[in-house]
Design a protein that fits this description.
184 residues, alpha+beta, Pnp Oxidase, Chain A, seven-stranded antiparallel beta sheet, two-stranded antiparallel sheet
């Protein structure tokens, strides 16, 4: 194979490549009723997430039968976190109470204190670490975030696994200092 060299390939993986396991997700503000200590545990109990993608929708303009694609608006996207459940279910209780305030199970109305966007949204962050654990090569902050779904938890007599569940988040936009995106 012309040009194949394992040494050339490995030299391109600076410091051995970025490990997917070196990350931390943080729920910095919340609107749930659970105590703040439970919410502070989010950065320890969030076991998986993603760094966000980015999509700009396409608008097709037709001229004399030929479609021309031009950039349109940013697509609305969601962010999902997977959380270990502790026996006190502090994070889950917080998210459920936050969602109850957004739209009550029984009355189908929003809490009266949640009329402005800042009154019902919070902020989330995700950051990656280098193997040395000190430098943050990439971080994202999700602005005006709120939970739109909390996943079910499977219980089963035949397993000893720690319970996990997903939380789906909606947000207005994200920003990242390292790429200077989302500040203007």
């Amino acid at each position: 194979m012309a040009g194949f060299s394992i040494d050339t390939f490995t030299a391109k993986l600076k410091q051995g490549g970025a490990l997917a396991s070196l990350f931390e997700a943080e729920l910095t503000t919340t609107k749930g009723t659970e105590d703040e200590a439970a919410v502070a545990d989010f950065k320890f109990l969030c076991k998986a997430t993603t760094l966000p993608g980015d999509t700009i929708d396409v608008a097709t303009v037709t001229y004399m039968g030929r479609g021309i694609n031009i950039p349109s608006n940013r697509a609305a996207v969601q962010w999902t976190t997977t959380v270990y459940n502790d026996e006190g279910m502090g994070i889950r209780n917080n998210i459920e109470s936050w969602m109850e305030k957004l739209n009550s199970h029984k009355s189908n109305v929003r809490d009266s204190g949640m009329s402005q966007i800042q009154s019902y949204t919070g902020t989330l962050k995700v950051k990656t670490f280098e193997k040395a654990g000190t430098v943050i090569p990439k971080s994202y902050e999700f602005i005006d975030a709120w939970p739109s779904a909390v996943g079910e938890i499977t219980v089963d007599w035949e397993t000893n696994d720690i319970q996990t569940y997903d939380i789906t988040w909606e947000f207005s936009y994200w920003r990242s200092n390292q790429s200077n995106v989302g500040f203007s």
